[in-house]
Amino acid sequence: MNSYPPQLQSLIDKLRLSIHDLTAQLETGLIQVEDWQAGMQALLARYHTAAYMVGLESESLSQSALDSIAAQVEAQLAYLDNFALVISSAGEFQAEFYGRADMYAGSITTEYWEARVGDLPLPAMPGQGTQCGGRCKCAWRIDTLDEKAGDHDAYWELGNADHCQTCLQRSEDWNPVQIRGGALL
């Protein structure tokens, strides 16, 4: 896979634009840091949920899916709290804030892949626990050997981008990851 799946890319692009617009309001003084942070929180909750729905190809989410999304959003909000402190203590807006804020758009990658691979016990999702946060556009390719028996081979594929050390290591270690009888070997 060379890039994000088209529907995920569309969501990332829309989120990136919304984040940019919100951050521009902060830069121009239309909103304060607290307003920006609240807006970011709302965007992250909305787009993490949308990414899961797109990956699942359904608008109906189970309680376990909602719990998973909430946990991922909470993790992002911890980073956001730190970022808001950095902005507040900077004294004045810095152009670098745009780039840092933009990184949140790639964070929805994990939800997409969690939904996409379903219940397969894979060791991690793209964007999860990586230095790049999913900006490398990595993906899982799943070869189903025997659906009924729960036998699959899963391959970590590098996307068409610069790669962090985590993703490079995963591409070496997880090609393939074997799942037999529904369990990770």
Structural overview:
With 185 residues, this protein is an alpha+beta fold. The chain folds into 2 domains: 1-118; 121-185, no CATH class. The chain is 54% helix and 11% strand. It contains 6 helices and 4 strands, in the order H-H-H-H-H-E-E-H-E-E. The chain has helices at 6-27, 33-56, 63-90, 96-102, 109-117, 165-173; strands at residues 139-146, 151-157, 177-180, 183-184. The protein has a 4-stranded antiparallel sheet with strand order 1-2-3-4. Strand 1 and strand 2 form a beta hairpin. The longest helix is centred in the middle third of the chain and has 28 residues, at 63-90. It is elongated, with a radius of gyration of 18 Å. The model has no long low-confidence stretch (mean pLDDT 93).
List the defining traits of the structure above.
elongated, 185 residues, 6 helices, 54% helix, four-stranded antiparallel β-sheet
At a glance:
With 185 residues, the protein is α+β, with helices and mostly antiparallel strands.
Mean pLDDT equals 93
**What is the total number of structural domains?**
2
The number of helical elements comes to 6
Strand order of the largest sheet: 1-2-3-4
Given helix and strand content, the structural type is alpha+beta
Give the strand content. 5-15%
Distance between the termini: 24 Å
Query: What's the β-strand tally?
Result: 4
Radius of gyration: 18 Å
Low-confidence stretches: none
- The ordered H/E elements are HHHHHEEHEE
Helix % is 40-55%
Instruction: Describe the global form.
Output: elongated
The biggest sheet amounts to: 4 strands, antiparallel
